[in-house]
Amino acid sequence: MNVEVETMVNGKLVHASVPARLHVADFLRQHLGLTGTHVGCEQGSCGMCTVMVDGEAVKSCLMLACQLDGRHVRTVESLAEDDRLSPLQQAFKEEHALQCGFCSPGFLMTATALAYQGKRPCRAEIREEIAGVLCRCTGYENVVTAIERWFAEHPQGAREDETADGARTA
Ligand code: FES
Ligand code: FES
């Protein structure tokens, strides 16, 4: 059985007819071609698939695509502008927070959601907040440093490019 869905994805309105059992990660990857959202466990354990839905970090393998109706989604594809990395991505690059990179979209969108919510986490809080993303390369120190630096360098709460519908404002 298919269900009609109308949702904003990275600032663009999307209409789709989706199988009722399709989860958001597969919807993004297979229906919209947004393969930056990675899928690891499909059981809610690894956090690789984290995206932002209405400002909250959500494990997209645990949410059905039909539940996106009327909601706003942001994926990692919304961060860079053409070839220009976002400040958060740049911080990951400069702090060597990218190893194989498979988990990186999960970390990036978790941090983006924190900023969107106006949080200014300290290092210990960042560590706690990103605990839902399991990095197989175990590179947490540099990830924490990159996110900490991003917040420090963006005293407005790193919100300069965060809006509810994924459109960039700066
Ligand atoms: S793929 Fe969603 S939590 Fe692992
Ligand atoms: S960088 Fe390889 S899984 Fe995290």
Automatic annotation (TrEMBL):
Protein name: (2Fe-2S)-binding protein
Ranges for domain 2Fe-2S ferredoxin-type: 3-79
Keyword annotations from UniProtKB, A to Z: 2Fe-2S, Iron, Iron-sulfur, Metal-binding, Oxidoreductase
PROSITE patterns: 2FE2S_FER_1, 2FE2S_FER_2
One Pfam family this sequence matches: Fer2
Gene3D superfamilies per record: 3.10.20.30, [2Fe-2S]-binding domain
Molecular functions (GO terms): 2 iron, 2 sulfur cluster binding; metal ion binding; oxidoreductase activity
SUPFAM superfamilies per record: 2Fe-2S ferredoxin-like (SSF54292), CO dehydrogenase ISP C-domain like (SSF47741)
